[in-house]
Input
Amino acid sequence: MIEAVVNTNLSADPLMSQTVNMAENQQSSSETVGAPFVELPKMAMRGVNVFYGEKQAIFDVSMDIGSNEVVAMIGPSGCGKSTFLRSLNRMNDTIDICRVEGSLQLEGQDIYHAKMDVVPLRARVGMVFQKPNPFPKSIYDNVAYGPRIHGLASRRGDLDEIVETSLKKAGLWNEVKDRLHQPGTGLSGGQQQRLCIARTIAVSPEVILMDEPCSALDPIATARIEELIAELSENFTIAIVTHSMQQAARVSKRTAYFHLGKLIEVNNTEKVFTNPDHELTEAYITGRFG
Amino acid sequence: MDNLHLDQHISQQFNTDLEELKTQLLEMGGVVEQQLSDAIAAIETADGDLAEKVLVIENEVDKREVALDEQAIAILARRQPAASDLRMVLMATKITRDLERIGDEAQKIAKMAIALNEEGESPVTYMMEDPRSISRVMNVMWALRSLERIGDHARNISEHIIFLVKGLDVRHISLKEMKRQVQENP
Output
Protein backbone atom coordinates (compact mmCIF):
# COMPACT_ATOMS: atom_id res chain seq x y z
CA MET A 1 0.00 0.00 0.00
CA ILE A 2 2.70 2.41 1.02
CA GLU A 3 4.71 1.44 -2.03
CA ALA A 4 1.79 2.30 -4.27
CA VAL A 5 1.41 5.71 -2.62
CA VAL A 6 5.12 6.45 -2.71
CA ASN A 7 5.47 5.30 -6.31
CA THR A 8 2.60 7.49 -7.36
CA ASN A 9 4.00 10.50 -5.59
CA LEU A 10 7.52 10.05 -6.86
CA SER A 11 6.50 9.30 -10.41
CA ALA A 12 8.16 11.54 -12.98
CA ASP A 13 5.42 10.85 -15.50
CA PRO A 14 3.48 14.11 -15.96
CA LEU A 15 0.25 12.21 -16.59
CA MET A 16 0.71 10.35 -13.33
CA SER A 17 1.30 13.46 -11.27
CA GLN A 18 -1.77 14.96 -12.90
CA THR A 19 -3.86 12.03 -11.77
CA VAL A 20 -2.53 12.43 -8.24
CA ASN A 21 -3.82 15.98 -8.21
CA MET A 22 -7.12 14.76 -9.55
CA ALA A 23 -7.34 12.25 -6.76
CA GLU A 24 -7.03 15.06 -4.26
CA ASN A 25 -9.90 16.96 -5.86
CA GLN A 26 -12.11 13.98 -6.43
CA GLN A 27 -15.14 15.63 -4.84
CA SER A 28 -15.16 18.61 -7.18
CA SER A 29 -13.92 17.01 -10.37
CA SER A 30 -15.57 14.60 -12.77
CA GLU A 31 -12.13 13.47 -13.94
CA THR A 32 -10.96 9.91 -13.55
CA VAL A 33 -8.93 9.26 -10.41
CA GLY A 34 -6.11 6.79 -9.98
CA ALA A 35 -3.75 5.77 -12.76
CA PRO A 36 -5.67 5.47 -16.05
CA PHE A 37 -2.54 5.73 -18.19
CA VAL A 38 0.41 3.40 -18.69
CA GLU A 39 3.73 3.59 -20.48
CA LEU A 40 3.71 2.24 -24.05
CA PRO A 41 -0.01 1.40 -24.16
CA LYS A 42 -1.42 -1.22 -26.52
CA MET A 43 -4.60 0.82 -26.82
CA ALA A 44 -4.95 4.48 -25.91
CA MET A 45 -8.35 6.17 -25.62
CA ARG A 46 -8.69 9.90 -25.09
CA GLY A 47 -11.80 11.99 -24.60
CA VAL A 48 -14.15 9.26 -25.80
CA ASN A 49 -17.85 10.13 -26.02
CA VAL A 50 -20.43 7.64 -27.25
CA PHE A 51 -23.99 8.56 -28.20
CA TYR A 52 -27.04 6.48 -29.02
CA GLY A 53 -29.00 9.03 -31.03
CA GLU A 54 -29.45 12.02 -28.74
CA LYS A 55 -28.61 10.08 -25.63
CA GLN A 56 -25.02 10.18 -24.46
CA ALA A 57 -23.84 6.87 -23.00
CA ILE A 58 -20.12 7.57 -22.47
CA PHE A 59 -18.74 10.89 -21.20
CA ASP A 60 -15.17 11.97 -21.89
CA VAL A 61 -13.46 8.69 -21.06
CA SER A 62 -9.66 8.55 -21.25
CA MET A 63 -7.61 5.50 -20.40
CA ASP A 64 -4.91 3.14 -21.66
CA ILE A 65 -4.78 -0.60 -21.97
CA GLY A 66 -1.22 -1.88 -21.56
CA SER A 67 0.34 -4.71 -23.56
CA ASN A 68 -0.35 -8.20 -22.22
CA GLU A 69 -2.29 -6.93 -19.27
CA VAL A 70 -5.79 -7.89 -18.20
CA VAL A 71 -7.96 -4.84 -17.61
CA ALA A 72 -11.30 -5.41 -15.92
CA MET A 73 -14.16 -2.97 -16.44
CA ILE A 74 -16.75 -2.98 -13.71
CA GLY A 75 -19.77 -0.92 -12.74
CA PRO A 76 -23.53 -1.15 -12.26
CA SER A 77 -25.85 -2.01 -15.15
CA GLY A 78 -26.12 0.83 -17.63
CA CYS A 79 -22.83 2.42 -16.55
CA GLY A 80 -21.47 2.21 -20.10
CA LYS A 81 -18.77 -0.42 -19.58
CA SER A 82 -20.03 -2.69 -22.37
CA THR A 83 -20.62 0.27 -24.68
CA PHE A 84 -17.05 1.40 -24.10
CA LEU A 85 -15.71 -2.12 -24.65
CA ARG A 86 -17.65 -2.47 -27.90
CA SER A 87 -16.26 0.82 -29.16
CA LEU A 88 -12.74 -0.66 -28.91
CA ASN A 89 -13.20 -2.79 -32.04
CA ARG A 90 -15.97 -0.75 -33.63
CA MET A 91 -18.60 -3.31 -32.75
CA ASN A 92 -20.89 -0.32 -32.20
CA ASP A 93 -20.72 0.40 -35.95
CA THR A 94 -23.43 -2.20 -36.39
CA ILE A 95 -25.83 0.08 -34.48
CA ASP A 96 -27.03 2.82 -36.84
CA ILE A 97 -27.77 5.46 -34.23
CA CYS A 98 -24.49 4.94 -32.37
CA ARG A 99 -21.85 7.65 -32.71
CA VAL A 100 -18.34 7.57 -31.25
CA GLU A 101 -16.24 10.70 -30.68
CA GLY A 102 -12.70 11.16 -29.43
CA SER A 103 -9.43 9.41 -30.07
CA LEU A 104 -9.16 5.61 -29.92
CA GLN A 105 -5.82 4.21 -30.94
CA LEU A 106 -4.43 0.70 -31.38
CA GLU A 107 -0.64 0.89 -31.30
CA GLY A 108 -0.84 4.52 -32.40
CA GLN A 109 -3.28 3.86 -35.25
CA ASP A 110 -6.64 5.62 -35.21
CA ILE A 111 -9.28 2.88 -34.99
CA TYR A 112 -11.99 5.20 -36.33
CA HIS A 113 -9.92 6.57 -39.24
CA ALA A 114 -11.90 6.66 -42.48
CA LYS A 115 -9.40 4.31 -44.11
CA MET A 116 -9.43 1.78 -41.26
CA ASP A 117 -10.93 -1.49 -42.52
CA VAL A 118 -13.00 -2.98 -39.71
CA VAL A 119 -12.62 -6.60 -40.82
CA PRO A 120 -8.86 -6.83 -40.15
CA LEU A 121 -9.37 -4.53 -37.17
CA ARG A 122 -11.72 -7.07 -35.61
CA ALA A 123 -9.16 -9.79 -36.29
CA ARG A 124 -6.58 -7.72 -34.39
CA VAL A 125 -9.08 -6.84 -31.67
CA GLY A 126 -11.23 -9.94 -31.17
CA MET A 127 -14.31 -10.31 -29.03
CA VAL A 128 -15.88 -12.96 -26.84
CA PHE A 129 -19.52 -12.44 -25.90
CA GLN A 130 -21.72 -13.09 -22.90
CA LYS A 131 -23.53 -16.05 -24.40
CA PRO A 132 -21.40 -18.63 -26.15
CA ASN A 133 -22.27 -18.23 -29.84
CA PRO A 134 -20.59 -20.96 -31.87
CA PHE A 135 -21.48 -21.04 -35.56
CA PRO A 136 -23.81 -23.89 -36.55
CA LYS A 137 -20.81 -25.70 -37.94
CA SER A 138 -18.37 -28.35 -36.80
CA ILE A 139 -15.92 -27.67 -33.99
CA TYR A 140 -13.14 -27.67 -36.59
CA ASP A 141 -14.91 -25.24 -38.90
CA ASN A 142 -15.75 -22.87 -36.05
CA VAL A 143 -12.04 -22.43 -35.34
CA ALA A 144 -10.97 -22.57 -39.00
CA TYR A 145 -13.53 -19.96 -40.06
CA GLY A 146 -11.47 -16.88 -39.18
CA PRO A 147 -8.15 -18.11 -40.59
CA ARG A 148 -9.99 -19.03 -43.82
CA ILE A 149 -11.67 -15.68 -44.38
CA HIS A 150 -8.52 -13.79 -43.41
CA GLY A 151 -6.41 -16.03 -45.64
CA LEU A 152 -4.08 -17.04 -42.83
CA ALA A 153 -3.59 -20.62 -44.00
CA SER A 154 -2.70 -21.56 -47.56
CA ARG A 155 -2.58 -25.30 -47.06
CA ARG A 156 -4.83 -27.76 -45.27
CA GLY A 157 -1.96 -28.80 -42.99
CA ASP A 158 -1.46 -25.18 -41.87
CA LEU A 159 -5.12 -24.88 -41.09
CA ASP A 160 -5.07 -28.14 -39.10
CA GLU A 161 -2.19 -26.75 -37.10
CA ILE A 162 -3.94 -23.44 -36.39
CA VAL A 163 -7.07 -25.30 -35.26
CA GLU A 164 -5.11 -27.60 -32.97
CA THR A 165 -2.97 -24.81 -31.49
CA SER A 166 -5.99 -22.58 -30.91
CA LEU A 167 -7.98 -25.34 -29.25
CA LYS A 168 -4.97 -26.17 -27.09
CA LYS A 169 -4.54 -22.54 -26.04
CA ALA A 170 -8.22 -22.41 -25.21
CA GLY A 171 -7.82 -25.52 -23.05
CA LEU A 172 -10.35 -27.47 -25.12
CA TRP A 173 -8.18 -29.73 -27.28
CA ASN A 174 -8.20 -32.81 -25.08
CA GLU A 175 -11.96 -32.70 -24.76
CA VAL A 176 -12.71 -32.37 -28.48
CA LYS A 177 -9.77 -33.83 -30.43
CA ASP A 178 -11.71 -37.02 -31.22
CA ARG A 179 -14.83 -35.23 -32.40
CA LEU A 180 -13.59 -32.23 -34.32
CA HIS A 181 -16.18 -32.71 -37.03
CA GLN A 182 -19.17 -32.82 -34.75
CA PRO A 183 -21.24 -29.66 -34.34
CA GLY A 184 -19.88 -27.00 -31.97
CA THR A 185 -23.38 -26.44 -30.65
CA GLY A 186 -23.31 -29.96 -29.15
CA LEU A 187 -20.74 -28.93 -26.54
CA SER A 188 -21.57 -27.85 -22.99
CA GLY A 189 -21.90 -24.13 -22.25
CA GLY A 190 -18.40 -23.83 -20.82
CA GLN A 191 -16.93 -25.81 -23.70
CA GLN A 192 -18.82 -23.64 -26.20
CA GLN A 193 -17.36 -20.52 -24.60
CA ARG A 194 -13.87 -21.98 -24.80
CA LEU A 195 -14.61 -22.85 -28.45
CA CYS A 196 -15.51 -19.19 -29.03
CA ILE A 197 -12.24 -18.19 -27.38
CA ALA A 198 -10.38 -20.66 -29.62
CA ARG A 199 -12.17 -19.14 -32.62
CA THR A 200 -11.10 -15.68 -31.49
CA ILE A 201 -7.45 -16.57 -30.95
CA ALA A 202 -7.25 -18.57 -34.20
CA VAL A 203 -6.73 -15.32 -36.13
CA SER A 204 -3.87 -14.29 -33.78
CA PRO A 205 -5.45 -11.15 -32.36
CA GLU A 206 -3.43 -8.63 -30.38
CA VAL A 207 -6.30 -7.73 -28.07
CA ILE A 208 -9.20 -9.86 -26.87
CA LEU A 209 -12.32 -8.09 -25.61
CA MET A 210 -14.54 -10.15 -23.34
CA ASP A 211 -18.06 -9.00 -22.58
CA GLU A 212 -19.16 -10.92 -19.47
CA PRO A 213 -17.71 -14.17 -20.79
CA CYS A 214 -18.72 -16.22 -17.74
CA SER A 215 -22.14 -14.88 -16.84
CA ALA A 216 -23.88 -17.82 -18.53
CA LEU A 217 -21.53 -20.42 -17.05
CA ASP A 218 -21.46 -22.48 -13.86
CA PRO A 219 -18.68 -21.91 -11.27
CA ILE A 220 -16.47 -24.73 -12.57
CA ALA A 221 -16.69 -23.60 -16.21
CA THR A 222 -16.11 -20.06 -14.91
CA ALA A 223 -12.97 -21.15 -13.07
CA ARG A 224 -11.68 -22.78 -16.28
CA ILE A 225 -12.24 -19.58 -18.27
CA GLU A 226 -10.55 -17.52 -15.56
CA GLU A 227 -7.57 -19.88 -15.61
CA LEU A 228 -7.54 -19.52 -19.38
CA ILE A 229 -7.56 -15.71 -19.11
CA ALA A 230 -4.46 -15.89 -16.92
CA GLU A 231 -2.70 -18.13 -19.46
CA LEU A 232 -3.79 -16.05 -22.45
CA SER A 233 -2.55 -12.85 -20.85
CA GLU A 234 1.01 -14.04 -21.49
CA ASN A 235 0.44 -13.59 -25.22
CA PHE A 236 -2.60 -11.35 -25.55
CA THR A 237 -3.90 -8.09 -24.19
CA ILE A 238 -7.30 -8.63 -22.58
CA ALA A 239 -10.09 -6.25 -21.62
CA ILE A 240 -12.94 -7.90 -19.75
CA VAL A 241 -16.30 -6.51 -18.73
CA THR A 242 -17.74 -8.36 -15.76
CA HIS A 243 -20.59 -8.06 -13.30
CA SER A 244 -18.69 -10.17 -10.84
CA MET A 245 -16.39 -8.04 -8.72
CA GLN A 246 -14.71 -11.15 -7.37
CA GLN A 247 -13.96 -12.16 -10.95
CA ALA A 248 -12.44 -8.74 -11.67
CA ALA A 249 -10.39 -9.11 -8.48
CA ARG A 250 -9.23 -12.59 -9.48
CA VAL A 251 -8.29 -12.13 -13.11
CA SER A 252 -7.23 -8.54 -13.73
CA LYS A 253 -4.08 -6.51 -13.25
CA ARG A 254 -5.92 -3.20 -13.42
CA THR A 255 -9.55 -2.38 -12.78
CA ALA A 256 -11.62 0.44 -14.27
CA TYR A 257 -14.80 1.53 -12.51
CA PHE A 258 -17.57 3.12 -14.61
CA HIS A 259 -20.56 4.97 -13.20
CA LEU A 260 -23.32 6.66 -15.23
CA GLY A 261 -21.18 6.72 -18.37
CA LYS A 262 -18.16 8.21 -16.67
CA LEU A 263 -14.88 6.53 -15.89
CA ILE A 264 -14.56 7.15 -12.17
CA GLU A 265 -11.35 5.35 -11.32
CA VAL A 266 -8.64 3.18 -12.81
CA ASN A 267 -6.09 1.60 -10.51
CA ASN A 268 -4.16 -1.55 -9.89
CA THR A 269 -6.71 -4.20 -8.98
CA GLU A 270 -5.15 -4.78 -5.58
CA LYS A 271 -5.50 -1.11 -4.76
CA VAL A 272 -9.10 -0.97 -6.00
CA PHE A 273 -10.14 -3.89 -3.80
CA THR A 274 -8.27 -2.87 -0.65
CA ASN A 275 -8.29 0.91 -0.71
CA PRO A 276 -9.91 2.55 -3.73
CA ASP A 277 -9.30 6.26 -4.34
CA HIS A 278 -12.90 7.22 -5.09
CA GLU A 279 -15.85 6.88 -2.75
CA LEU A 280 -18.13 5.75 -5.59
CA THR A 281 -15.77 2.85 -6.33
CA GLU A 282 -15.70 2.02 -2.63
CA ALA A 283 -19.50 2.09 -2.44
CA TYR A 284 -19.84 -0.22 -5.45
CA ILE A 285 -17.27 -2.85 -4.55
CA THR A 286 -18.38 -3.06 -0.93
CA GLY A 287 -22.05 -3.36 -1.89
CA ARG A 288 -23.18 -0.07 -0.37
CA PHE A 289 -25.86 2.26 -1.69
CA GLY A 290 -24.13 4.26 -4.43
CA MET B 1 -14.93 3.83 13.14
CA ASP B 2 -18.18 5.68 12.55
CA ASN B 3 -16.99 7.04 9.21
CA LEU B 4 -16.66 3.50 7.86
CA HIS B 5 -20.41 3.52 7.09
CA LEU B 6 -20.83 -0.06 8.22
CA ASP B 7 -24.61 0.34 8.11
CA GLN B 8 -24.93 1.30 4.44
CA HIS B 9 -24.72 -2.04 2.64
CA ILE B 10 -27.49 -3.15 0.35
CA SER B 11 -27.43 -6.38 2.36
CA GLN B 12 -28.90 -5.76 5.83
CA GLN B 13 -27.37 -8.99 7.07
CA PHE B 14 -23.91 -7.78 6.05
CA ASN B 15 -24.53 -4.56 8.02
CA THR B 16 -25.51 -6.65 11.03
CA ASP B 17 -22.47 -8.94 10.70
CA LEU B 18 -20.02 -6.04 10.56
CA GLU B 19 -21.77 -4.10 13.32
CA GLU B 20 -21.59 -7.19 15.51
CA LEU B 21 -17.89 -7.55 14.82
CA LYS B 22 -17.34 -3.91 15.71
CA THR B 23 -19.39 -4.24 18.90
CA GLN B 24 -17.48 -7.35 19.94
CA LEU B 25 -14.20 -5.56 19.37
CA LEU B 26 -15.24 -2.49 21.37
CA GLU B 27 -16.55 -4.66 24.21
CA MET B 28 -13.34 -6.65 24.33
CA GLY B 29 -11.39 -3.37 24.39
CA GLY B 30 -13.51 -2.23 27.33
CA VAL B 31 -12.92 -5.46 29.25
CA VAL B 32 -9.15 -5.32 28.70
CA GLU B 33 -9.09 -1.63 29.65
CA GLN B 34 -10.81 -2.43 32.94
CA GLN B 35 -8.52 -5.41 33.48
CA LEU B 36 -5.43 -3.24 33.01
CA SER B 37 -6.59 -0.41 35.25
CA ASP B 38 -7.50 -2.96 37.95
CA ALA B 39 -4.06 -4.57 37.61
CA ILE B 40 -2.32 -1.22 38.03
CA ALA B 41 -4.50 -0.28 41.00
CA ALA B 42 -3.78 -3.71 42.52
CA ILE B 43 -0.03 -3.30 42.32
CA GLU B 44 -0.17 0.29 43.60
CA THR B 45 -2.05 -0.76 46.69
CA ALA B 46 -0.83 -4.38 46.86
CA ASP B 47 -4.51 -5.35 46.73
CA GLY B 48 -4.70 -9.14 46.47
CA ASP B 49 -8.48 -9.33 45.95
CA LEU B 50 -8.42 -6.88 43.05
CA ALA B 51 -5.50 -8.79 41.54
CA GLU B 52 -7.48 -12.06 41.78
CA LYS B 53 -10.31 -10.39 39.89
CA VAL B 54 -7.87 -9.53 37.06
CA LEU B 55 -6.87 -13.19 36.79
CA VAL B 56 -10.51 -14.26 36.52
CA ILE B 57 -11.24 -11.72 33.77
CA GLU B 58 -8.35 -13.14 31.73
CA ASN B 59 -10.45 -16.22 30.89
CA GLU B 60 -13.19 -14.01 29.54
CA VAL B 61 -10.72 -12.10 27.37
CA ASP B 62 -9.43 -15.34 25.86
CA LYS B 63 -12.97 -16.46 25.06
CA ARG B 64 -13.73 -13.11 23.45
CA GLU B 65 -10.63 -13.38 21.27
CA VAL B 66 -11.76 -16.78 19.97
CA ALA B 67 -15.35 -15.61 19.37
CA LEU B 68 -14.22 -12.50 17.52
CA ASP B 69 -11.90 -14.48 15.25
CA GLU B 70 -14.74 -16.90 14.48
CA GLN B 71 -16.99 -13.99 13.52
CA ALA B 72 -14.26 -12.52 11.29
CA ILE B 73 -13.63 -15.85 9.54
CA ALA B 74 -17.36 -16.29 8.95
CA ILE B 75 -17.57 -12.86 7.33
CA LEU B 76 -14.56 -13.56 5.12
CA ALA B 77 -16.00 -16.89 4.01
CA ARG B 78 -19.56 -15.72 3.42
CA ARG B 79 -19.21 -12.13 2.22
CA GLN B 80 -15.83 -11.77 0.53
CA PRO B 81 -15.52 -8.23 1.89
CA ALA B 82 -13.59 -5.64 -0.09
CA ALA B 83 -11.91 -2.29 0.53
CA SER B 84 -12.83 -0.72 3.90
CA ASP B 85 -14.90 -3.79 4.88
CA LEU B 86 -11.93 -6.06 4.18
CA ARG B 87 -9.65 -3.79 6.18
CA MET B 88 -12.21 -3.74 9.00
CA VAL B 89 -12.36 -7.54 9.24
CA LEU B 90 -8.61 -8.09 8.97
CA MET B 91 -7.74 -5.35 11.42
CA ALA B 92 -10.38 -6.57 13.89
CA THR B 93 -8.49 -9.88 14.07
CA LYS B 94 -5.17 -8.10 14.50
CA ILE B 95 -6.48 -5.68 17.12
CA THR B 96 -8.08 -8.51 19.07
CA ARG B 97 -4.71 -10.28 19.16
CA ASP B 98 -3.01 -7.21 20.61
CA LEU B 99 -5.85 -6.76 23.10
CA GLU B 100 -5.44 -10.35 24.22
CA ARG B 101 -1.69 -9.80 24.71
CA ILE B 102 -2.42 -6.68 26.75
CA GLY B 103 -4.69 -8.87 28.87
CA ASP B 104 -1.79 -11.33 29.32
CA GLU B 105 0.46 -8.52 30.55
CA ALA B 106 -2.27 -7.25 32.90
CA GLN B 107 -2.42 -10.78 34.27
CA LYS B 108 1.35 -10.75 34.91
CA ILE B 109 1.04 -7.40 36.70
CA ALA B 110 -1.76 -8.84 38.82
CA LYS B 111 0.44 -11.80 39.78
CA MET B 112 3.16 -9.37 40.93
CA ALA B 113 0.50 -7.57 42.97
CA ILE B 114 -0.47 -10.86 44.63
CA ALA B 115 3.20 -11.59 45.41
CA LEU B 116 3.60 -8.15 46.95
CA ASN B 117 0.38 -8.53 48.90
CA GLU B 118 1.67 -11.77 50.37
CA GLU B 119 4.80 -9.89 51.51
CA GLY B 120 2.42 -7.56 53.27
CA GLU B 121 4.03 -4.14 52.91
CA SER B 122 4.50 -1.33 50.49
CA PRO B 123 7.54 -2.18 48.37
CA VAL B 124 9.24 1.21 48.37
CA THR B 125 9.18 1.60 52.12
CA TYR B 126 10.39 -1.94 52.40
CA MET B 127 13.41 -1.36 50.23
CA MET B 128 14.35 1.85 52.03
CA GLU B 129 14.26 0.09 55.32
CA ASP B 130 16.01 -3.09 54.27
CA PRO B 131 18.19 -3.69 51.18
CA ARG B 132 17.45 -7.42 51.42
CA SER B 133 13.96 -6.66 50.10
CA ILE B 134 15.30 -5.76 46.68
CA SER B 135 13.92 -9.00 45.25
CA ARG B 136 10.46 -7.76 46.10
CA VAL B 137 11.10 -4.53 44.29
CA MET B 138 12.02 -6.61 41.28
CA ASN B 139 8.34 -7.53 41.13
CA VAL B 140 7.55 -3.91 40.52
CA MET B 141 10.25 -3.76 37.88
CA TRP B 142 8.67 -6.72 36.10
CA ALA B 143 5.34 -4.96 36.23
CA LEU B 144 6.93 -1.90 34.63
CA ARG B 145 8.31 -4.09 31.90
CA SER B 146 4.81 -5.43 31.28
CA LEU B 147 3.58 -1.86 31.02
CA GLU B 148 6.23 -1.17 28.42
CA ARG B 149 5.05 -4.15 26.38
CA ILE B 150 1.49 -2.92 26.70
CA GLY B 151 2.71 0.35 25.22
CA ASP B 152 4.07 -1.59 22.24
CA HIS B 153 0.71 -3.31 21.78
CA ALA B 154 -1.05 0.05 22.02
CA ARG B 155 1.18 1.33 19.25
CA ASN B 156 0.36 -1.76 17.15
CA ILE B 157 -3.35 -1.13 17.64
CA SER B 158 -2.90 2.49 16.57
CA GLU B 159 -1.12 1.32 13.42
CA HIS B 160 -3.92 -1.16 12.68
CA ILE B 161 -6.45 1.65 13.05
CA ILE B 162 -4.52 3.90 10.66
CA PHE B 163 -4.60 1.05 8.14
CA LEU B 164 -8.28 0.44 8.82
CA VAL B 165 -9.31 4.07 8.33
CA LYS B 166 -6.84 5.27 5.69
CA GLY B 167 -5.55 2.10 4.04
CA LEU B 168 -1.98 3.14 4.89
CA ASP B 169 0.45 0.55 6.17
CA VAL B 170 2.55 2.56 8.65
CA ARG B 171 4.32 -0.30 10.40
CA HIS B 172 8.09 -0.32 10.81
CA ILE B 173 8.62 3.36 9.98
CA SER B 174 9.60 6.35 12.12
CA LEU B 175 6.94 8.34 13.93
CA LYS B 176 7.88 11.36 11.83
CA GLU B 177 7.36 9.44 8.59
CA MET B 178 4.11 8.01 9.97
CA LYS B 179 2.86 11.50 10.75
CA ARG B 180 3.80 12.75 7.29
CA GLN B 181 1.97 9.91 5.55
CA VAL B 182 -1.15 10.30 7.64
CA GLN B 183 -1.25 14.07 7.03
CA GLU B 184 -0.77 13.61 3.28
CA ASN B 185 -3.78 11.31 3.11
CA PRO B 186 -6.67 13.20 4.63
